Amino acid sequence: EAHLPRPHSQGWPQLRKGASWFNSALTLNESRGRLGGMNAAVRAVVRMGIYVGAKVYFIYEGYQGMVDGGKNIVEANWESVSSILQVGGTIIGSARCKAFRTREGRLKAAHNLVQRGITNLCVIGGDGSLTGLNEEQVEQHAHLNVVGMVGSIDNDFCGTDMTIGTDSALHRIIEVVDAIMTTAQSHQRTFVLEVMGRHCGYLALVSALACGADWVFLPESPPEEGWQENMCIKLSENRARKKRLNIIIVAEGAIDTQNKPITSEQIKELVVKQLGYDTRVTILGHVQRGGTPSAFDRILASRMGVEAVVALLQATPETPACVVSLSGNQAVRLPLVECVHMTQEVQKAMDERRFKDADVHLPCACGMCGADTACPPTLQSNCNVAVINVGAPAAGMNAAVRSAVRVGIADGHKMLAIYDGFEGFAKGQIKEIGWGDVGGWTGQGGSILGTKRTLPGKSLEDIATQMRKHSINALLIIGGFEAYLGLLELSAAREKYEELCVPMVQVPATVSNNVPGSDFSIGADTALNTITDTCDRIKQSASGTKRRVFIIETMGGYCGYLANMGGLAAGADAAYIFEEPFDIRDLQVCRRHGKMKTTIQRGLVLRNESCSENYTTDFIYQLYSEEGKGVFDCRKNVLGHMQQGGAPSPFDRNFGTKISARAMQWISTKLKEASGKGRRFMSDDSICVLGISKRNLLFRPVAQLRKETDFEHRIPKEQWWLKLRPLMKILAKYEASYEVSDSHQLEPVHHRGHEEPAAI
Q: Which of the residues 68, 154, 519, 536 is marked catalytic?
């Protein structure tokens, strides 16, 4: 077996442009599937590799191209990956290769790599692609450093919370479901939608959550005996309550307890025969693989691509092959062989239906997916729980309210809706809200309850009066920074008003993503997709005119999350934010950027609305217009409130549903602990913000978060996404340093038990 030459690599505390590599190169290969986000990964690997001074090669047509060699292995350059972020599929092609599974085929592939001095291999693909890098090959070619990135719409690879392409597939599914729901409502129809997922029901489950489906069938969770009768009863109950449509989601690998397939046609025939409903079947098929990649997938793929290059730079002959994965919002590296073996074990168990042997964590079949079916409470708590929206509207708020109401009712609480924020609270705009009242809310944008920025400070006495009048035992606040400030004011007033001594929790919901205590907020993903879609259209409009620079202003207040992450997702040349001060010299560097001398001849600059008091959008526009005379012209676009509108993205629907349900579980636990004790809640841990911090879902007391807040600029003092700031600069060909943390060590693969909850 040929031993490949390898670079003289050291542990790199920092990566800077200009690093030299003797007789080495990065290679890119993809061997399975067509899905959104792969081109973003291709772009990131190529540009990061070139940035650190390495040669980068495309291997066309996957492993087949590696075996065949010749023109299938071509050196890539910076411009070869321009304008591919918004393109679905993969520009380097994909193909399955039987020859690579043989020793002779792998020898040919190794020979082709040796000929070109290729010492590092980056594989982008699903379990099929990464299975090609089996243990035998890794051991025999130990000096070929290998890193994998997982691309699969099924989200079926062990070791990562999300695979590249899954979010884009969910976008395609929800687009179809939203369109179908309008026609189904008009004609009072039942629709059976079949989505992909032979071994994994992730797409089916999450799309059912995101659209409020009536029933869902998953391969991991066969329905109990008699499901046919139970489903028909639920559908007929819905129609009796004047619901005009039914949606049933079926994963292609769904089975019953006898291991027999449950098909979409079988379900249609059942509904028509038993209920006589007009029923149609829609099989989405490869529509789920196509289309424009979502903002989430572009950012995920870009992060994974850069991390893959860093992993190769830090590799030694003793370093085992690794796969770059996502855990929470952190990029981690896991042993590739172990992850592949674990994935194959689960798939084999799924085929043989030996769930216990494979330790498969099975989701509940009914869960939150029986969305619009009546769910009688299992207990009576005699507690009243109120839900309120505060601050600016954010897509996903309604999904969070719906989830809270239904989980609360299932826990036996009486749920109260407060309209028009704290202002409506003080005026007594409070009504009981039932299970059916929130039907169909998941896919609606804005805030159906109404929301205002008014703080409770001037109306505390009136609010306390309403709390006493309606016997409110707990309060769930869904909103942004105003909700956080309101929670602080309510906390400070507890000593004066005993009515406020109840459990209170905030679920972050704001496009600005600036709530302390949480890395993500409901609504931010939808806003990012709006920004990304707009940038795509603007870039397309410039493809004919050439030599044009666009200045785009985003929302966010003083928080630069939307501008920075939007710039990363859209492939912007620069993003000006408040958190990173800039001056006229930075504007000059951007203006002199050599892009107009290439075949691209187009510029895209994002600016956060409050990044600078003096360097306004108009100022930057006028500067570029004046300085660019004879070279390029300039246009500006203020996106404004379109970032707050529109239907929620699948991520925001799913996130809002899950995090709000978790908040209600916390409230129920608090109330249960105090049941019959007449307890007043005065401790700090009874008034919290629920959020994601790194890899954990945490309830943080607002008293603790006060120290971590920049109240003047309404942002947290530390923001995780600022660590991704250099990525956008590097991928746009600017000088930048990329800090490498201790995460370059391989982490163990965790076997999640049945009692351990999955990350949101």
A: 154
